[in-house]
Write a structure and sequence with these properties.
Elements: H1 2-16, H2 30-38, E1 43-45, E2 64-69, H3 70-74, E3 93-100, E4 103-113, E5 116-122, E6 128-130, H4 137-143, H5 154-157
Antiparallel strand pairs: 1-2, 2-3, 3-4, 4-5, 5-6
Length: 158
Amino acid sequence: MYKYVFILTAIILIACRKDKGINPDLAYKDYSLLDSCKNEAAFNYYKNDPNIIYPGNNGAHGSFKLKFNKTAFAALTDNGKLPLNTKFPERSMVVKEVMSGTSLNFYAFMYKYKGAWIWGEAKPNGEVIYSVEKDPALCINCHQQTGNRDLVDTFIFY
């Protein structure tokens, strides 16, 4: 009897085994990138000051704090900006913490993946405002500027 239970258990375990890995593209979806935005240890604030709230008069998002993941931050020069006519490296992430007064309202983020930016917006509670699945043309149209700094407009104004 135990022999049959063992054999049946072995058959079930083998039949239910998953040889397929998790889809690696899931790391570049709304919720994964939102989780990255929340990881304070992975970011440096613009000009190394987490207390500055920029007025955002020149953009659609409103007042904000700006931060860069370690990959993006390493590409910035001593004056805290990406050199003119250069690009951020692969896996760079730029995050605007869009504020309502002194409180975080939502994240607007850009992530460099396969040589292009992925764009998204989400609230801290997980509500997606602008999905990375949408056509990025709306974002790109606003972020194109003279003095090419890889579509990061903040460098022009601050």
